[in-house]
Amino acid sequence: MTVAVEELRELKSDQVVDARATSCPGPILAAKKAIGSIPVGGVMEVLASDTGTLKDLPAWCKKMGHDFLGSIDDAGYLQLFLRKMK
User: Fold this and answer.
1) What CATH number is given to the structural domain containing 76?
2) Which residues are catalytic?
C-alpha cells in the first residue's frame, strides 16, 4: 500500500529514526530497534542516505507484517514511512 508523496508529507510520524550516517544494514537495524516504541497503527519515519534502504525497508516490512507507505527523496536523503501493523 503505497501512499502519494503529498500524503506522506502530511503524515505525522510517531517516531523518526535518523539512520543517515549508516549504510546497509544500519537503517534496517535502527528501524527494528525503534519499532517496539511505537503503538500498533503508528507511523515510523526512517531517514536514510543509503539508497539500498529503498529495497530493504519494504522487504523487511513485508516480512514483519507492517505496511510500507512509501518514500520521499528530495532533501538530499530518503524519508521512508511505514505503519506498524502488529
Assistant:
1) 3.30.110.40
2) 24
- The pTM of the whole model exceeds 0.90: yes
- Per the structure, the count of domains in the chain is 1
10: left (phi over 0), alpha (psi -120 to 50) or beta: alpha
1: pLDDT strictly greater than 80: no
Output 3-12 pairs: Cβ under 8 A, ≥24 positions apart.
3/69, 3/70, 3/81, 4/70, 5/70, 5/72, 8/69, 8/70, 8/71, 8/72, 8/79, 8/81, 9/72, 11/43, 11/45, 11/69, 11/81, 12/43
Beta strands per DSSP E along 1-86: 15-18, 43-48, 67-73, 78-83
**Residue 46 in this model has a pLDDT that exceeds 70:** yes
**Residue 15, domain extent:** 5-83
